[in-house]
Design a protein that fits this description.
The protein is an alpha+beta fold and 63 residues long. The protein has a domain of 37 residues. It has a two-stranded parallel ribbon. The longest helix has 15 residues.
């Protein structure tokens, strides 16, 4: 059981890459290598800073 849990951490099926897109030239090559070694998919999340001027609808999605 412990080996199975260890394998999930060392060989994930999905890798989340959260970025504000300013560091993609350094970040993506590393993420692609890690995904290839683990046989995982990459999920890219564009993180933006919330500001007071940002309008959102009821669900929280920015306009």
């Amino acid at each position: 059981m412990q080996e199975q849990a260890k394998s999930r951490w060392t060989h994930p099926s999905l890798i989340l890459v959260a970025t504000d897109l300013s560091d993609l030239d350094r970040l993506m090559p590393f993420a692609e290598i890690q995904a290839a070694q683990a046989g995982a998919r990459l999920l890219l999340l564009h993180a933006i800073a919330a500001t007071e001027a940002m309008l959102t609808d009821v669900s929280g999605m920015p306009y």
